[in-house]
Fold this protein.
Amino acid sequence: MEVLHLNKESFEKLSRQSEKPFLVDFWASWCGPCQRLAPELEALAAEHPEIIVGKINVEDPENSSVAVNLGVNSIPALFFYRDGKMVKQLVGFMSKDELVKKLEL
């Protein structure tokens, strides 16, 4: 499965309706660690179709309210949801293997 590019509306819909666990990455184009994380997330999405992987660009004013509401103050910030509830919050670059371990996939 490919990484989804989310906005405020699609994130809220995913939060309410997803039956699958999902991981959301808050990122920005100027963020070096965010750029390094992108291929790791793509590999994670490809190898773990049982989860949804999405990205939200915090540079978009429409999306900034989502980041503010979740308390994002450093990026990349990763939020993992199961059954509609956030169960893990991670900050910073990590490899796909580290993500698999930390998310207990």
Q: What stands out?
A: The beta strands are 4-6, 22-27, 52-57, 77-82, 85-91. The mean pLDDT is 94. Helices lie at 8-17, 32-47, 61-70, 96-103.
